[in-house]
Amino acid sequence: MATLPHPPLHHHPGGAGAALPDWDPSLIANPDFDLGFLQAAFEGDLRTVKKAVRVLGRGAEGRRLAEKLEAVRDGFGMGLLHRAALGGSLPVCRYLVEHVRMDIDVLGPHGTTPLDAALARQNMELARYFLEQGADTEMLDADGYTPLHFAASQGDVGMVELLLSKGAHPDTLNHGGTVLHYAATHGRDDILKVLLDHHADHKKALSGTGYTALVLATIAHSLKCVQLLLEAGADVDGVGKETPLMIAATAGATDILKCLVLAGADANVPDSLGRAPIEIAARSGRREDVEILFPVTSLIPGVREWSVDGIISHVKSVRPEKKAMLASAKSKANEAFKDGNYLVAARIYEEATQ
């Protein structure tokens, strides 16, 4: 999500909050007029804002007046309604929207709206006001994010609930992923639960990977997210090339592995190279994982002694350099996920298991 710029909001030529002398109409074309007007909006100085509107609006009314006011911008491209929202002034916002009739979805820096500004300040009162006045919950900023994506990226559960209650669509895609994918990737079980309560589609796969939210939660090692998704009816065996169980075995997520097995995951679905999850776990030397998988895994051809120790001994023939390569790939994928690059990480995981 493109962040709103942070100009020196508390300063403009003539001193903070300084009024323009006598509101001389000749000053309208002066940059100081716009800066004083914008500063008054930010500081919630409704009296000064009304004076400025009267001066600027001489000879204009209705939509023409609104358009003149929407043209008042600072050097960052931020207008009056954005400034008022960033300053947290509900009275000024209400005056500009209801009296002046400014466009509630007027675009500012990076394609952001006044609603985005309220979200950036985590101002629930203003966000609720904009939504009740008809702010578009599906407006995309320059990076393709909706307000819901923005609220989720801030970890603001209250805002996520508010947006969903006002009609925000939980399944809008951004860079191939939904907000549910984001929550699963970052282990935000609180946000994920709210999304599921509003019927977010847990069957949707992340574009380019085939990974569902359940797989992403598994990679993120978020047991709580995995449990919530399973309770919501997510397919325990996934829909992509690798099952959640295979991912858990590869990632060494023992608690999730156990959860998936108890939920009925098929331990006999192989990866693209024909390897069962138990072989992956044994190859990594994770005896506990092998013990969890052993009772639900069918006999594997070529394993001479069908026991936990027999399987571990069987996979020791894998070349050391191959083991090192897999470990390195897993480490890189984990780092990518921590940085939020889940498309990159998903591809690394896929390549690591080939």
Automatic annotation (TrEMBL):
Tell me where the ANK repeats sit in this chain.
Answer: 110-142, 143-175, 175-201, 209-241, 240-272
Instruction: Note the PROSITE patterns from the entry.
Output: ANK_REP_REGION (PS50297), ANK_REPEAT (PS50088)
Which superkingdom heads the taxonomic lineage of this protein's source?
A: Eukaryota
* Keywords, in A-Z order: ANK repeat
Keyword ATP-binding set for record: no
Question: Which InterPro entries would you find in this protein's record?
Answer: Ankyrin_rpt, Ankyrin_rpt-contain_sf, Cul2-RING_E3_ligase_SR
Entry-linked Pfam families: Ank_2, Ank_5
Recorded protein name is Uncharacterized protein
